[in-house]
Design brief:
alpha+beta; three-stranded antiparallel β-sheet; 8% strand
Length: 437
């Protein structure tokens, strides 16, 4: 059967977003919560018993009872909050030289974190890895080897290893991050749930499903207890468990969890939030693999409308919706409509991410499949060749996504009577998959 590469279920990938980056590149304040988590913001408003800061397209209200400190990264001033009175004490200025150096090093770590995330989203994984390695060294020397920031840096390196197909390295780094968080924050902390989630998703992507469900369920239990059953992070864990059930063919269980996640996100974030679009996208993909194309189209169009409104028509997530909607039309045999959607997705990704991003290769691969379905074999081969070159260059010659394009090209060669070349590509793809077992 032909393999049509597509953007993976978005919210599953969201679980792997670089954890260290919480705020913008010009963050001026670090808010430390009483559970140990940190939030970076450019500015906030003091409104008596709570503060308000901007996040994405909306504002977040945070009770002062949940805040331990707020540090101004420019001046070093710290506000310490009293949990009993929910009022702040007088600002405390850091005067010790070592403390000032600590803030300077923390600012350096933040800068590196922002830089590696920028490179990551551009698809420059090798350069991003170098920056992540430097950030890890800074974290260890500044905060000590068992600090949560070290775990964040380890998680970032693990994610970079994972996207490049280096699963053994990724597993080792994810487990190191988990051990640090369990020791520093306790086994029932939300950061531990994030680490468990990351490990589980990595195993699931490799098809190693044994034990994955228990990791997801432990993450859900931690988040429900620490954050409440209706928190968006609980919805994320439900979404990821649903993705596992989808991969196992347990479609009814997957749909139940996706719909529960959707309900949580709508109530907690509002009906037009990008995370709501992620849930709708996931339901669309679940319906598509069951050949429920009418429902799939409806969900994908709803996701597309939200992303256009919340993120703008030139955002990569809009391209994801266009791509996945194209998959629905392709499955129906409406190749011209699919091709148009793939072309729109390709244009957005090339402009937003650059011509060598893996997501661009995905669009090229899918567009090539549409041309092949229309028997425009020369056009299809040209696009497959471009997709293969990007994936080999960015992900390496032995990445599983390289094998997908090789198999698609082999199918094309078989249809055009080039049996010897097809056999060579199939053999190479098989070797890649065998190596990744």
């Amino acid at each position: 059967m032909k393999r049509y590469a597509r953007m993976r279920v978005c919210a599953v990938l969201a679980a792997f977003a670089i954890v260290g980056v919480v705020g913008a590149a010009d963050a001026h304040y670090i808010i430390t919560l009483r559970d140990g988590r940190e939030i970076k913001v450019t500015r906030y408003e003091d409104r008596g018993d709570h503060i308000v800061y901007k996040r994405f397209a909306g504002k977040v209200t945070l009770p002062k009872a949940r805040i331990a400190t707020i540090v101004n990264m420019s001046t070093g001033k710290k506000q310490v909050f009293n949990p009993l009175t929910e009022s702040k004490t007088a600002p405390q200025r850091s005067t010790a030289p070592a403390k000032r150096r600590n803030y300077a090093q923390e600012a350096l770590w933040d800068k590196l974190d922002v830089e590696l995330t920028r490179l990551y989203h551009q698809g420059h994984y090798a350069e991003s890895t170098k920056v992540a390695e430097k950030a890890l060294r800074v974290a260890k020397s500044t905060f000590g080897p068992d600090h949560p920031k070290v775990a964040t840096s380890l998680n970032n390196l693990a994610e970079l290893a994972r996207v490049q197909g280096n699963y053994a390295t990724a597993e080792r780094l994810y487990k190191q991050a988990l051990a640090i968080h369990e020791k520093a924050l306790g086994k029932n902390h939300p950061e531990v749930a994030t680490d468990l989630n990351n490990l589980a998703v990595m195993y699931a992507l490799q098809g190693k499903h044994a034990g994955v469900e228990s990791l997801y369920r432990r993450a859900i239990a931690i988040r429900e207890k620490a954050l409440g059953p209706h928190h968006p992070d609980v919805a994320q864990s439900m979404n990821n468990l649903a993705a596992l059930y989808k991969a196992q063919g347990k479609y009814a269980s997957a749909e139940d969890l996706h719909r529960r996640a959707l309900a949580i996100r709508r109530k907690a974030l509002g009906p037009h939030h990008p995370d709501v679009a992620n849930s709708l996208n996931n339901l669309g993909e679940l319906y598509r693999v069951q050949a429920k194309y009418t429902g799939a189209e409806t969900f994908h169009r709803q996701a597309l409308a939200i992303r256009n409104r919340a993120l703008g028509s030139a955002h990569p997530e809009v391209a994801t919706s266009l791509n996945n909607l194209g998959l629905v039309f392709h499955a129906r045999g409406q190749y011209a409509s699919a091709k148009s959607l793939y072309e729109q997705a390709l244009a957005i990704r090339e402009k937003a991410l650059g011509p060598d991003h893996p997501a661009v290769a995905t669009s090229l691969n899918n567009l090539a499949a549409s041309y092949q379905a229309e028997r425009k074999y020369a056009d299809a081969e040209s696009l497959f060749t471009r997709a293969l070159a990007i994936r080999e260059r960015v992900l390496g010659p032995n990445h599983p996504h390289v094998a997908i394009v090789l198999e698609n090209m082999a199918d094309l060669y078989t249809k055009t009577g080039r049996q010897y070349e097809a056999a060579q590509l199939q053999a190479r793809a098989k070797a890649i998959r065998w190596r990744r077992r």
